[in-house]
Amino acid sequence: MLQTTLDSTEELLSAIAPRLEKHVASKQWGLAKYQRISESQRLFPTCPQLKEVFDYIEANYHQSIGLSDVAVAVGYSAAYLTNLVRRKTGKTVNDWIFERRMLAARTLLLETNQPVNQIACAIGYQYEGYFFRQFRQFHGTTPQAWRNTQRSNVSVNHEQHNE
User: Fold this and answer.
1) What is the three-state SS of 15-70?
2) Which residue, 8, 53, 81, 161, could crosslink 71 as a Cys pair with Cβ 3.0–4.6 Å?
């Protein structure tokens, strides 16, 4: 009787384990998706007067856009928009485009195995070399070195968490 109970318990646990693993994976995926959305939303300051500017950048950063494109889209002259954004945020329109692209680059470097040149293209850079220079200037290292470091940090943290 005891053996039958143990066998039944093991069968039950064997049936439950894959479902729990699937549930945990689903929760982690949902959390990761939420964090990505939250990161891009937190990047831009809450400023009603600039909402249209930031919405345009968010929708188009992956293309080759600059100050003049944003100005046309929101109906301001480039000079007026530059002054407005700098006065409200302390940064330029191009700074905001750059920061949004860097956020996207970090996400793609961590979550995909895409080559760096494809990532550069995917986030709006026409020239891979320019992306490399900007990434290095912002992060102090190359995109591939950053990816390797971050992934090794994640695996070390994961191993420590499982101990």
Assistant:
1) HHHHHHHHHHHHHHHHHHHHHHHHHHHHHCCCCHHHHHHHHHHHHHCCCCCCHHHH
2) 81
